[in-house]
Amino acid sequence: MADVFLVEPPAASGFGSLRTLGSIGTFKADMAWPPLDLMIIAGLLRGRGFSVELLDANSARLSFDAVKAALEKASPKLVLFTASTPTLYHDLRVADIAKSVSPSILTAVTSTHVNALPLETLALNPNLDYAVPNDSEFTVLELVRGVSPELVPGLAYRMNGVSRLNPAAPPIERLDDLGVPSHDLLDLNLYRDPFMKRGPMAVTYFSRGCVNQPPCIMCSACFYGRLRHRGVSAFMKELRELKRMGVRELRFPFEGGFNRSEHARELFEAMIAENLGMNFTCNARADCLSPELLALMKAAGCTAVNIGCESADANVLELMRKHVAPEQVRRAVSDAKRAGLEVLVYFVFGLPGETRDTMRKTLCFAKTLEADLVTFGVAIPHPGTEFYSYLKQRGYLLTEDWSRYNPMLPPPYSYPGLSSSEIYEFSRKAYRSYYLRPQLVWKRLRRGDWAREWKNFTGFAARYIKKQGNQ
Question: What is the pTM of this model?
Answer without folding.
Answer: 0.92
